[in-house]
Specification:
The protein is an all-alpha fold. Helix content is 57%, strand content 3%. The chain contains four helices and two strands. The protein has helices spanning 7-55, 69-79, 81-92, 95-107, and strands at 121-122, 125-126. It starts with 6 loop residues before the first helix and ends in a 24-residue tail after the last strand. The model is unreliable at 113-125 (pLDDT under 50).
Length: 150
């Protein structure tokens, strides 16, 4: 319940409690709060027991945590054989590796030796590398449309 409270936060709460309630009233306040929490737990446990007894013996393994939609879906997926095969297939893919290869291709970095190091010639002229960003157009190339020129 309080697993996300750190040591510094706990010390801060204790210091604030001592300042607000004073050292004389603090033990009484702690007893009252702990008694209140105990009553709430007893009420919750008795309500759960009543619900289980009303549902009957068919639901003896019923857990209230299964009412959470995330837990219910996880449980159903874990029990279904078709989804087990799908999970095996899904785990066989290395999505991170695939994404890194795509990113390398977009940025013009070589990822595998199968990528040619130099541009290949077609009809006697060298093909430009379309994956690399060109800073300046070649001498025979027409520059892109420039709105400042008009």
């Amino acid at each position: 319940m309080f697993s996300d409270i750190g040591a510094l936060e706990l010390v801060t709460l204790v210091v604030l409690a001592v300042l607000i309630f004073g050292p004389e009233k603090l033990p009484k306040m702690i007893q009252d709060v702990s008694r209140f929490i105990r009553k709430i737990r007893e009420f919750s446990d008795s309500a759960k027991a009543d619900i289980r007894s009303e549902l009957g013996p068919e639901f003896k393994d019923f857990e209230f945590e299964d009412l959470n939609p995330k837990n219910f879906i996880r449980k159903q997926l874990a029990e279904n054989e078709d989804f087990k095969e799908l999970n095996e297939l899904r785990s066989s893919f290395d999505l991170k590796k695939e994404m890194n290869e795509v990113a390398d291709a977009v940025h013009g970095r070589e990822t595998a030796p199968a990528v040619p190091a130099a541009p290949t010639a077609v009809n006697g002229s060298a093909q430009p590398d379309l994956l690399k960003k060109q800073d300046k157009p070649d001498a025979g190339e027409r520059p892109p449309y420039d709105s400042d020129a008009t």
